[in-house]
TrEMBL record:
UniProt function note: Part of the tripartite ATP-independent periplasmic (TRAP) transport system.
Taxonomic lineage from the root: Bacteria, Pseudomonadati, Pseudomonadota, Alphaproteobacteria, Hyphomicrobiales
Organism: Chelativorans composti
Subcellular location: Cell inner membrane
Protein name, UniProt field: TRAP transporter large permease subunit
Transmembrane segment boundaries: 21-44, 64-85
Length: 90
């Protein structure tokens, strides 16, 4: 999903003045590890606990999804969190 969407949205985000590192972190969070329908962690858990239905696994992931939404909101409100280490490297 990242391979398809990043070439479309990256030039737009850069023309709007967003930092490319910040955009990359936000993109990975949005399309990343927990978010359905491609949440990789969900499929890892399904591979380990094969007798547990996917609906139960997604219900179990729900608190972590809300925590990720809070984290995402903080990163949007305070982009300095994402850019702290890259700016320290200069």
């Amino acid at each position: 999903m990242l391979v398809v969407t990043i070439p479309i949205f990256y030039p737009t985000m850069m023309s709007l003045g967003f930092d490319p590192i910040w955009f990359g972190v936000i993109a990975v969070i949005l399309m990343g590890m927990i978010t359905p329908p491609v949440g990789m962690n969900v499929f890892v858990v399904k591979g380990i606990a094969q007798d547990v239905p996917m609906s139960t696994i997604f219900k179990g992931v729900l608190p972590f999804w809300f925590a990720m939404v809070v984290c995402l909101m903080l990163l949007v409100i305070f982009p300095q969190i994402v850019l702290f280490i890259p700016q320290a490297m200069y």
